[in-house]
From TrEMBL:
This is CRM domain-containing protein. It comes from the Bacteria. Gene3D superfamilies: YhbY-like. GO terms for molecular function: RNA binding. Coiled coil: none annotated. Residues 1-96 form the CRM domain. InterPro entries: RNA-binding_CRM, RNA-binding_domain, RNA-binding_YhbY, YhbY-like_sf. Keywords: RNA-binding. It comes from Neobacillus bataviensis LMG 21833. The lineage of its organism: Bacteria, Bacillati, Bacillota, Bacilli, Bacillales. It holds the Pfam family CRS1_YhbY.
Length: 96
């Protein structure tokens, strides 16, 4: 689990990032979870955009993705989800 201080640090780091995944009408599927897990290993921290036509609630989408990938939900703001997972091989973010 991330502490409040770590979440603040990660939110600041994620601020300038653009969403690299979008969750739309189809919602979350296994293929998407696999792609996000691979991207998390490469980047550790990124944003996912939940589109207006997504039938699931953004909180449910975030929890589903976090559970499927083993990531931590850093923040849900508007329709943007910020996820973090420490990389095994490409660790670049040093948490406070």
């Amino acid at each position: 689990m991330l502490t409040g201080k770590q979440k603040r640090f990660l939110r600041a780091k994620a601020h300038h990032l653009d969403p690299i995944f979008q969750v739309g009408k189809g919602g979350v599927n296994e293929n998407m979870i696999k792609q996000i897990a691979d991207a998390l290993e490469a980047r550790e921290l990124f944003k996912i955009s939940v589109l207006q036509n997504c039938e699931e609630d953004k909180t449910e989408v975030a929890e589903h993705l976090a559970k499927g990938t083993g990531a931590e939900i850093v923040q849900i703001i508007g329709n943007i989800i910020v996820l973090y997972k420490e990389s095994v091989e490409k660790k670049t973010i040093k948490l406070p």
